[in-house]
Design goal:
GO terms for molecular function: transaminase activity. It is a single chain. The protein is α/β, with parallel strands linked by helices. It has 17 helices and 15 strands. The relative contact order is 0.15. The structure holds pyridoxal-5'-phosphate. Pyridoxal-5'-phosphate binds next to α6.
């Protein structure tokens, strides 16, 4: 089947996620047919450096035969069985053990899901169940942040703080309250980063007091906001948030769906920021995206309550801990350990990206170039001296993204913020190539 036939069928029958369906019809999709290492290839034979690791997930890169072998072996042996009631299977159990070895010390249990969104649905239920079991059912409110992303299910998007998502699809899940995000470049430049980070933490405390501390169940946040724009909070933010949370009887949920599994140069973002979460939703890099799997890691305080006092938890998914997905995830983690992937991000690739990416600060279109581990962002500005943004937000970012894609690099745009999160197995030479392609796209955008 040729490209045009495929594009026509795509247009006729396929609605893409997070896409203007009509605009897609006019242009036609670029069809990705295969991938190897850090490159995807389209149906025209073009190689494209995948600066987004798919959707922040293909951490080990494409074409890892060991993962394919783990999947096929498991599909032959036991393609499906569930973990409901009193059955389980080896891949789920072994993956649970491995995750608890890698997670912070107080984390010793996992509940599997099929995705990050399902993980956050599970979080919402666990948080409220926990407080009900503690005899405090009035603790219902969950504080989240504007512009956070926690998934696309109704609970996930309600926990998230994406205004365009909230504007579609009717009432949100009640009992979720959003506070300002620690996005210094976008919202805090009238203060120092330090003062702004503290002010954002103070906003959480103010909200706790407004809602009534007896009514607040949890605070949920990504260590670094991913989909919102690769927003690394000011250094003062997390220590100040920790101080606030320590004063009140509430749970901390750290969404590790993007930051988990090496992205920031530690196994979990919580370890990078020295956080002690009660619940950690995970997905994406857990299996390097080869098969869909997610979960919630539970700290002892929540796990013990749910286990000892909870009785049956009426919650679960057909594919919770799916054998083939679990087998691939386990192999993925074993390879990451054997190859020292996380340490390489921390000690070599992360610092190298920071150096090379930082050079883009000099570009006339760039107001800020920031990175942490293997996640980076560029803030596009119309006027470098004043930092003034473009009048029509979206336009410059989308243009730059399209120019990148046309010239062989996947970068994502969120408004006028350009994002990268390449596979963790990228080499220094490939980082050089990525930076050169990004610079070229910036020149063409200018
Ligand atoms: N949480 C975070 C921080 C995410 O970035 C995402 C997806 O991008 C999700 C949750 C939802 O995960 P999924 O798309 O697997 O449902």
């Amino acid at each position: 089947m040729n490209l045009h036939d495929l594009q026509a069928l795509d247009r006729a029958h396929h609605l893409h996620p997070f896409t203007d369906f009509k605009a897609l019809g006019e242009e036609g999709s670029r069809i990705i047919t295969r991938a190897e290492g850090v490159y995807i290839h389209d149906s025209e034979g073009n190689g494209i450096l995948d600066g987004m690791a798919g959707l922040w997930c293909v951490n080990l890169g494409y074409g890892r035969e060991e993962l394919v072998a783990a999947a096929t072996r498991q599909l032959r042996e036991l393609p499906y069985y569930n973990n409901f009631f009193k059955t389980t299977h080896p891949p789920a159990v072994r993956l649970a053990e491995k995750l608890c070895q890698l997670a912070p010390e107080h984390v010793n249990h996992v509940f599997f899901t099929g995705s990050g969104s399902e993980a956050n649905d599970t979080v919402l239920r666990m948080v409220r169940r926990y407080w009900a079991l503690k005899g405090k059912p009035e603790k219902q409110w969950i504080i989240s942040r504007e512009n956070a992303y926690h998934g696309s299910t109704v609970a996930g998007m309600s926990l998230g703080g994406m205004a365009p998502m909230h504007a579609q699809g009717g009432p949100l899940v009640p009992g979720i309250s959003h506070v300002r995000q620690p996005y210094w470049f976008g919202e805090g430049r009238d203060q120092s980063p330090k003062a702004f980070g503290r002010a954002c933490a103070a906003a959480i405390e103010a909200r706790i007091l407004e809602l009534g501390e007896d009514n607040v169940a949890a605070f949920i946040a990504e260590p670094v906001q991913g989909a919102g724009g690769a927003i690394m909070p000011p250094a003062s933010y997390w220590p100040a948030v920790k101080e606030v949370l320590a004063k009140y009887d509430m749970l901390l949920v750290v969404d590790e769906v993007i930051c988990g599994f090496g992205r920031l140069g530690e196994w979990f973002g919580s370890q990078y920021y020295d956080l002690e979460p009660d619940l950690m939703p995970i997905a994406k890099g857990l299996s390097s995206g080869y098969l869909p799997i997610g979960g919630v890691l539970l700290g002892d305080r929540v796990a013990e309550t749910l286990i000892e006092e909870g009785g049956e938890f009426f919650h679960g998914f057909t594919y919770s801990g799916h054998p083939a997905c679990a087998a691939v995830a386990l192999k993925n983690l074993e390879i990451m350990q054997a190859e020292g992937v996380v340490e390489r991000v921390r000690d070599d690739l992360g610092p190298y990206l920071a150096e090379r990416w930082g050079e883009l600060t000099e570009h006339p279109l760039v107001g800020e170039a920031r990175s942490l581990g293997l996640m980076g962002a560029l803030e596009l500005v119309a006027d470098k001296a004043s930092g003034r943004r473009f009048d029509k937000r979206l336009a410059a970012g989308n243009l730059c993204r399209d120019l990148c894609f046309a010239s062989g690099l996947v970068m994502r745009s969120v408004g006028d913020t350009m994002i990268i999160a390449p596979p963790l197995v990228i080499t220094r030479e490939q980082i050089d190539e990525l930076v050169a392609l990004a610079r070229r796209a910036l020149d063409e955008t200018a």
